Amino acid sequence: MKPLLSKTTKPFIIYVLIILVISIPVYYFAVDTIWKSELDEHNTTIAEKTAYQFNNLKLSDKELEKSIRLWNQIQPATDIERIPFNYLKKDQFFTVEKQKTFMSKPETERYRCLKKVIYIHHVPYLFTVETNIEESQETVAAIAAITIFFFILIVAGLLFLNKKLSTSIWKPFRNTLDKLKTFNLNSQTRIEFGTTDITEFEELNRSLTQLMEHTISVFRTQKEFTENASHELQTPLAILKNKLDILLQTEHLTDQQYQIAEEMNRALTRSSRINKNLLLLAKIENNQFDNSETILFDELLFQSMEVLQEHFEQKKILVSTHILPDIKVRGNTGLTEVLINNLLLNAIRHTSSGGSIAVNLTDSRFEVANSGTEKLNGDMLFKRFSKLSTDTNGSGLGLAIINEIGKFHYWKIEYRFENNSHVFSVAF
After folding, report:
1. Which DSSP letter does residue 201 get?
2. Closest C-alpha to 270, from 393, 377, 388, 386
3. Has residue 305 been placed in a domain?
4. What is the CATH number of the domain that holds 318?
5. Distances 366 to 14, 248, 425 between C-alpha atoms, Å
6. Tell me: the pLDDT tens digits for 45-75?
7. Which is nearest to 93 in space by CA: 35, 43, 141?
8. Of 193, 382, 412, 426, whose CB is crowded by the most CB atoms within 10 A?
9. Do 249 and 231 meet the contact criterion of CB atoms below 8 Å apart?
10. How far is it, in rounded angstroms, from Cα 278 to Cα 284?
11. Is residue 85 domain-resident?
């Protein structure tokens, strides 16, 4: 995971880089156009100044022709040629490439040229002038170097400013986040967020305050319902069961009446167990348990196996164990005991007489494996009231409770079928 600023900075840097790369040819063409415009103005000035100087000399025609020939010989970049009237109606500007023949190593260079009609002694002359243009490769290299320099400057400045600004700009958000981390729904303590002059963070704080107030209200309502249901339902169920027990002890019951009363008693017992399990699930989902206890898992496991020893013997189940000592975990002792009992009872209930159960405990995993013949449907395994066997004694909530207890403790509950055994594992 990356901070929010890094996710926004990277696209911005890429965008700036693309723009600067595109700007290099744009800069080149812009500078080249400006140079050509300036050279055209420069060449025009030379032509006009040359005509002005020749006219001021007031030479004779022969002296003028001799001076022009001398000019053409000593000025390689210009040429003055007599032309007839109306030979050239307007000035011509163009660019040519030539080699420097007077150098030991000829080089090709660009020249900006001008053909302009000037008048000396009222006679038209074609004045041609060529001015060297700066090398394009050098221009591109210089522009690229400057662009790279400014890109590095922008990136360094951006990273520096982001680091400095994030401390102050994101401070209200971090304060809000720190307070949310300390929020505990069980304590139902309202959080007072500090005020900020940033509109978005102020709106966030108001929304969070409203959300928590609503959540606390719903939690309180659900908790009251759970407590009321626990009290109101268990009492009549207990009374009914007590009356049925008295009825079953009556001597004048016929066999048919006794059978009906026994079926009612079993159904009532199962209903009471379902009610308790549903209430337990509701309490787990409402986070009504503390998970900060230090639990000696191996001791709880030995206690549960000792209590269930009669069930193992009754079904003649062969039990093998590999339990490491002094295994400590963080969580809720009561819920952990429920998880252990449910896994063991589930294994006993679904193991045929003469079968086997293996119990393993390490510092990172708790496993219960029971013998079987066919893999169970993993998609339906931990759903409430899912029936994966013909056994009707269970409430259909045992594995669902195991799954919820695992979520509550952030333990990973897994099922697999290997070596003809159903293996349920809890990874701490």
Report:
1. H
2. 393
3. yes
4. 3.30.565.10
5. 50, 42, 6
6. 999 999 999 999 888 888 989 999 898 888 8
7. 43
8. 426
9. no
10. 10
11. yes
* Whole-number Cα distances in Å, 343 to 124, 350, 361, 378, 410: 114, 11, 13, 16, 17
Residue-number span of the structural domain to which 206 is assigned: 199-285
For the chain, what is the domain count? 3
Same domain, yes or no: 363 and 319: yes
pLDDT of 222 reads 75
Mapping DSSP to helix (H, G, I), strand (E, B) and coil, where does residue 132 land? strand
Per the listing, tokens 């268990």 go with 234
Q: What CATH code is carried by the domain that includes residue 79? A: 3.30.450
412-418 and 421-427: which strand pairing?
Answer: antiparallel
What's the one-letter identity of residue 425?
A: S
> Minimal CA–CA distance to 116: which of 50, 162, 62, 170?
50
pLDDT at 6: 67
User: How far apart, in whole angstroms, are the C-alpha atoms of residue 337 and residue 301?
Assistant: 8
Type of residue found at 310:
E
Are residues 342 and 422 part of one domain?
Answer: yes
- The answer, as to whether pTM is greater than 0.90, is no
Element (H, E) at 423: strand 421-427
Between CA 218 and CA 224, with CA 220 as vertex, the angle to 5 degrees is 115
Burial classification of residue 350, based on how many CB atoms lie within 10 Å of its CB (0-12 exposed, 13-18 middle, 19 or more buried): middle
Q: Which residue in 388, 319, 391 sits closest to 355, CA to CA? A: 319
Yes or no: say if 261 and 300 are a contact pair by the CB < 8 Å rule: no
Q: Are residues 251 and 311 in the same domain?
A: no
| Token pair recorded at residue 340 | 């252990």
Closest by CA position to 136, among listed 59, 234, 31, 264: 31
Q: Which strands form 108-120's sheet, in the order they lie side by side?
A: 78-82, 123-132, 108-120, 92-99
Under 8 Å between Cβ of 213 and 190: yes
Q: Which residues of the chain have pLDDT under 50?
A: none
Same domain for 281 and 308: no
Which pLDDT score, from 0 to 100, does residue 384 have? Answer: 73
Q: Tell me, yes or no, whether 159 lies in a domain.
A: no
Q: Please tell me the distance from the alpha carbon of residue 205 to that of residue 203, in angstroms, as a whole number.
A: 5
